[in-house]
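Reply to dn_fold:

You asked what the input looked like. This is it:
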Amino acid sequence: MIDYIIEKAIKERLIIIICLLCVIGYGIFQYNRLPVEAFPDVSPVMVPVFAEAHGMAPEEVERLITFPIETAMNGLPGVTQIKSTSAFGLAAVYVYFNDDTDIYFARQIVAERLSSAMADLPEMHEPPGLGPISSGLGQIFIYYLTIDGSADTDGKDPDTYLREINDWIVKFQLQSIPGVTDILSIGGHILQYQVKINPDQMNQFQIGLDELVDTIQKNNKNAGGQFLTLNHEEYLVRGIGLLQNLDDIRNLHIKVVNGTPVRIKDIADISFGKEIRRGIVTRNGEKEVVSGIVMQLFGENTSDVIQRLYKKIPEVQASLPSGIHLVPFYEQAELVAEATDTVKKALIYGAVLVIFSLFLFLGNLRTALIVALALPLCVLIAVIFMGFKGLSANLMSLGGIAVGIGMLGDGAIVMVENIFRHLSEPQNRGRNKINIILQAAKEVGRPIVFSIAIIVIVFMPIFTLQQVEGKMFSPMAFTITFALIGSILAALVMAPVLSVYILKPRKGQEFIVLRFLKKLYRPALIKAIDHKIFVLLVTVIIFVGSLMLVPRLGTEFIPTLEEGSILIGVTMAPSISMDKGKEIVMKLERKIMAYDEVEETVSRIGRPEAGSHPHPVNYAEVHIELKPLHEWNNYTNKAQLISALEKSLKEYPGIQLNFTQPIQNAFDELLSGVKSQLAIKLFGDDLNILKTKADEIKSAIIDIPGLVDLSAEQSFGQPQIQIIADRDACSRYGVNVSEILEIVELAIGGEVVDQIYLNNRRFGIHVRFQEQFRVDPSAISNLLIRTEKQQLIPLSQVAEIKKVIGPLQINREENQRRWMIQANVRGRDMGSVVSDIQRLISENVSLPPGYFIDYGGQFENQQRAMKRLNIIVPIAILLIFLMLYMAFDDFRNSLLIIINVPLSLIGGIIGLYVCGEYLSVPASVGFIALFGIAVQNGVVLVSYIKQEREHGVDLREALVNGGLLRLRPVLMTAFTTIVGLIPLLLSTGIGSEVQRPLAIVVVFGLISSTFLTLFLIPAMYGWFENEDKIKSVQARYYEKLGEST
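and this is what came back:
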């Protein structure tokens, strides 16, 4: 089959050239159509469910809302995990599915179960709903609104006016953009029509709260009366009764007392007010702003959506009232461009270095040109397959091509080098050029296909990775595989065809560099063959020495990707008020803005009113945008700046800081439910025990080196005022518990009982007691409640009012309560830190029965990935061995080459140790690539030695000749791969962190592997040769030779 392809390609070479040109043209076309992203979206398939429970404490939210919803979601097909948070006024349940589950199917079945669960839920102001159809990394764009002195706010304060503009103008226009699923508004104030009741006046007229609410609701309606036909014309009939303004509410008639009509204004103050909010946004420590968070639709391309946003923003700005400005603050487009530029530059520089090294070894411009032309062909073939597969151009997919750029020309190198050598041999002078090329191409065609197939097989384990690591690295494996398939086409089809037109059948002279290398290699090879035991012993000693370095390497999941900005998670005391939290955060912002390297800060305290993230008001995120690095004056890198910020900000007592980055923050939260790299999860039933044990764990591990930003969840410590009905007293006075709860819910907490409609805008009508009647427990205890005999008694007569401490929020996972201790790891590897944590916890913390610890975050993913690789990599090596056996039909030769696989670890391990990198998933991928290249070089050398032996050449002579004749292709394949990876090795651009460990392993590993290939394999070949089989083949060869003569 391989020979037929070569023959057909040379015979139909004009058609082949036209086809290759078409492939190149279509590849360029496809490249321009590829979607562009910074990183692959590693988000799990997850459906969030949010339920607003106005005024409810976390305990009631968990018991009445969260638990029934969780229970309803159990047993759904494809569900892998259920997490939840019960916070003040909000239940958030996150349902995770298998990665192959369609997001719309997942949402459909969750919605169906949610509908069936409604019967078990209490009556709520709004029914539970599904969150935006977005991924965990879907916050792609953040903006804020500003106002200047020329703006007319219609008498409203600026924060309320800006929020109204954002909710009713900006949000709806941006949400119409394809790829945008939602806009989350936060900051400012939402306008309300507030009815503030004076309970004394209400009791004077013997009016109940239910009467007041009923009056508002019955007097705020429109009705339709079909139509009337008058004089052959149809007139629609409308009944108009909607409230229009404050006066309409004031003048609503409740009842008549002693002949006097009582209106709402007689018992309450009616005015514009502000809705109770749970989130604030501040900027630069100067003032509040109104912000919008653009959520990207699941599966959409980030760059395309951001381009549409920027195209729409001028139109939105033109529609805003004078003096209002929309200011973009954060968007991922710049990150996308910088991440892809990093790998594009590495790809271009690597290709240039590869082409230069080709000329260096081949010493002939024509041969170098043919191999150089193979590189873009392989890349474009990979791009075409990326389009078919639906892969985006991102750091990992393009990184796969950059990693493989040196390997892509290997097949063409072997092919062209062999053709060029045959054309240059004196005995071939006068022969037909095409016949010479055909013979030379067939000679190496089969080894080329097998060697490339081996590398493809080597990358198969990457496709078995799951979840985060699978989504991160499978694009790289796909593009390398696609490009390697292209390299087979380039070697078998393009190289022989171009050789017909470009190479000349004349005597060639080896380039001076190669002659010099052969001069050094020949005596060294002879010594290695003569002293094979010594060579083997030295190799084993070095191999064992390198393995001893492994425990000192340290381990991590995936290196942190540089994003160019900083996010600080600020956790304050659980009891803190939102206004006090705002004061603290603005102080932090002003401190941060004092650094010259900082461009701007925007902080988000609490959560948007619409849910999405159940952050309490004691949690804030300070987003820091930095100036370009060349404008920095005091620090040379971000790590130094973070260290300085950490020291400066820790001067503020009572706060916990977590330094991270926007995407990393979301990434970590997706992994473990917390915004840090490492999560220690403590499970049990009693919140008090969980808190106690969490504090013990924190104290036990606080001094571990490398463990930073250590904090336990602030899930307890929220002060509560509890109004507990005295059932005996209620029976004596004839008071129902529901009447007490009505005071708690409506009079003290307040409730939106209806809405005012102004065109398309809606504003709530909020009913609540005036502040002086609910300002503290004493005032609440003096509230009057009507008995069965129509007497008014203080609330304290039928209820106990006391202060207690309760939970701030209750987190659950897999239907159990969970407490989290979270931390980041800096300056040390994740694996050794977790080992220290496990040891200290086992020594210092004892857990009651039914309580247990689990580890989450990046460590959990690292363990899962390494466990899978430990199974799959040996299977891949076995497959490689089977491929070798198929190629050589010889067990011993296959075993000789496979020995080179573990020995190639030497350079990779030493490289990681010398460069200070940890053993991570990218490094493991590098070792996988290294195995394939090591085998490929072994195949090139052993196949020629075996061929020489089969042709009757003496063993020693065959070893020396094989080594010398295959020195160039072995060195070229190794050297081109090494120089192709040098740009990735030295790169400092965004995203280079994840590629560098891979490049280090391959570069250093190839150095050691190449020496082993050139010296150890020839030295050991005699031990592995099957003499009986060789003699049999030689006999047949001599017999055939005799017949031909």
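The domain at 510-553+889-1045 is CATH 1.20.1640.10 (Multidrug efflux transporter AcrB transmembrane fold).
Hope that clears it up.
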